[in-house]
Amino acid sequence: DSSLWRSAHKNRISMAFKGEDHLDCLPLPVQRMHLIQVDSVQRWMEDLKLMTDCECMCILQSKPISIEKDEQNELILSSQYSTCDNLQLLLKRAWIISTELTRIAQKLEKNRWQRVHSMTVRVNCHVRSMINEYNTFTRNSSEEMHQFAKLLIDKCSEFTAFTERCIQTEDEQILKSMKSCINETLATIAQYFGQLMELVLTCEAQKLLRQIEMSDSVYITQSAISSLFSLAQEGAHLCRIIAKEGGVVALFKICRQDCFRCLYPQVLRTLASICCVEEGMHQLEKVDGILCLADILTDNSHSEATHAEAAAVIAQITSPHLTFTQHLSSFLENMEEIVTALIKLCQEASSGEVFLLASAALANITFFDTMACEILLQLNAMKILLAACSDKHIVDTPYSRDQVVTILANMSVLDQCASEIIQGNGVQLLMEMLFERSSSGNSAEVAACERVQQKSAVTLARLSRDPEVADIAVKLSCIPRLIKLCRSPTERNNSDSVLVACLVALRRLAVMSPDGLEDSDFQQLVKPRLVDSFLLCTNMEESFV
């Protein structure tokens, strides 16, 4: 009945401070409910382990409860995290604290002192809970870590007391004078918190790497690699920590041991994540990682999954968006073997995902070094890629078509490429790519479609220096499509890069086939300077209004 439940709720709070068994303090009916595993009670018992400290402090210190309407913005650690990995729980708590500190600064700017105080209390609770949680699953914390934890807790307590004094005064001058001190304290808390998290995450990365290096057990190694991969997914900062602690070295060591072959796909996936940062790339170079990847790709005894993940690492380290790939000198030494293995993987891919990873690696390599285009031409890559595009189960997304047309665009600078395109019906494919549109409206997919349109126009412009290619393009009605893309912003999704590429392609085809244009199109899109035609087309939508 209700009286029994109220009694249980009171005991729930009091027993939390006494450290007694929570189940023993429950009334008999509630114990019976627990024994038959009623979901709500089971969930409460699980949550209590994590939230006791935070809940009790909020009850004791946050009176009266704020009546402001933005309580829904409060961040609470959901019960779903009670069963998560300890490290993920720690990261979630850290994210909450970081977000709350940002919100305190925002509320402070607006002089909402009551709100600042209640949020400060909550941060204090979360900080204590995080430290307690970490201590429960960590046996040996360093002395430095203990010192930072104590500094952080003391500073949070000082901050809470400070903001409490602020809500007890209404003198604007006093509050104004205290504001700078509060800002300084907030900055100090953020600094201590950042330093503590750096130490904690470094320590956890070291533990995982020790497990990977010292264990002969596939199960233990797999578990450690899985945790390391989860850490790497948290962002570039975590990847830097892992790389600095020797993560790349440890993972490549696994890739050189046959007894761990079943773990290669997982190891390579983790490496692809870590090598998004410069520290990871330097470590890869030091341990001859490129040679190891080349060996994996060219070894036919490995599974397709292993080859695909190795291709993903290659795609990552050769990304044209990275500014620190110039030091990969060993890549040039192994490039022919790698390119050969990748085009073979494209040809034999059993799924769209495998093809995407292999083609993405090839596309990046064609940016990385022009010699790759010559190697691809010798390997009949044009024929293989064009054939793959006709299989809708393999090239099934705008992302895959983006990789293919990138390779075609970069290969089209070679004179021998034109005949390969004609033989493989490539001009027809490029024409179809000019009609690429997103079916979902997803922003990433829309951007991929824009890139497909742009690069197909660029490829047509380059190939149209060959009269035979230009003649085929004109017969396939490329000129009307290019004109429409220039004149209709919606057709190109208002993309300026698509517009420029289409104007260039149109001008190249107009030289080869001037009869294909009406006089107005010629006067506006071909005859003026490129920049004048560009401005005309970008302002076209406004001129119709």
UniProtKB/TrEMBL annotation:
GO terms for biological process: apical protein localization; asymmetric cell division; establishment of mitotic spindle orientation; regulation of asymmetric cell division. It holds the Pfam family INSC_LBD. Residues 93-545 form the Protein inscuteable homologue C-terminal domain. InterPro entries: ARM-like, ARM-type_fold, Armadillo, Insc_C, INSC_LBD, INSC_LBD_sf, Inscuteable. Transmembrane segments: none annotated. It comes from the Eukaryota. GO terms for cellular component: apical cortex. One of its GO terms (molecular function) is cytoskeletal anchor activity. Signal peptide: none annotated. Residues 36-80 form the Protein inscuteable homologue LGN-binding domain. This is INSC protein.
